[in-house]
């Protein structure tokens, strides 16, 4: 069974930092590029960041570039998202996924990030 378990979300003030983590299982993690997505209430889910299977390349949405850093540990089947200089508009539920399972509309529960003073 494919499992995607996100953690690390919470309430943080603008300008603060959070580190999200995703534990994946049920597929060959090291063969898949992994991404972080986010979805605010009433809005479309958007792609935030992607890292290649061997961590050789990364890609970020313009809205988070320079503030967020995606990383992975293939030995632990985890992918992380370090979020710095957080803004209220970063408030959303954050999900990790591969393109493969996102394409099948399979998602974990996500982790809530709220940026507010």
Biggest β-sheet description:
6 strands, mixed
- Per DSSP, the total helix count is 1
Strand order of the largest sheet: 2-10-9-4-5-6
List the uncertain runs.
none
Pairing-aware structural class of the strands and helices? Answer: mainly beta
Mean pLDDT: 97
Q: Identify the overall geometry.
A: globular
Helical content stands at: under 10%
Residues in β-strands, percent: over 45%
What would you call the quaternary organization? Answer: single chain
Q: Would you count the extended β strands for me?
A: 10
Cα radius of gyration in angstroms: 13 Å
Please give the alpha-carbon distance between the first and last residues: 39 Å
Written as H for each helix and E for each strand, in order along the chain, the element string is EEEEEEEEEHE
Question: What attributes characterize this protein structure?
Answer:
117 residues; 4% helix; 10 strands
Question: Can you offer a commentary on this structure?
Answer:
- This protein is mainly beta and 117 residues long.
- Helix content is 4%, strand content 46%.
- The protein contains one helix and ten strands, in the order E-E-E-E-E-E-E-E-E-H-E.
- The chain has one helix spanning 99-103, and strands at 3-7, 10-12, 18-25, 34-39, 46-51, 58-60, 68-73, 78-83, 92-97, 111-115.
- The strands form two sheets. A six-stranded mixed sheet has the order 2-10-9-4-5-6.
- A hairpin with a 6-residue loop joins strand 4 and strand 5 (46-51).
- The protein is globular.
- It starts with a strand and ends with a strand.
């Amino acid at each position: 069974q494919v499992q995607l378990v996100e953690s690390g979300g919470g309430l943080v003030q603008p300008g603060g930092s959070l580190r999200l983590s995703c534990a994946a299982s049920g597929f060959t993690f090291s063969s898949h590029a992994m991404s972080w997505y986010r979805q605010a209430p009433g809005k479309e889910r958007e792609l935030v960041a992607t890292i290649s299977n061997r961590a050789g390349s990364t890609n970020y949405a313009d809205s988070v570039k320079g503030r967020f850093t995606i990383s992975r540990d293939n030995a632990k089947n985890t992918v992380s998202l370090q979020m710095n200089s957080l803004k209220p508009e970063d408030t959303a539920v954050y999900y990790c996924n591969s393109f493969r399972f996102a394409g099948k509309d399979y998602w974990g529960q996500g982790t809530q990030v709220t940026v507010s003073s």
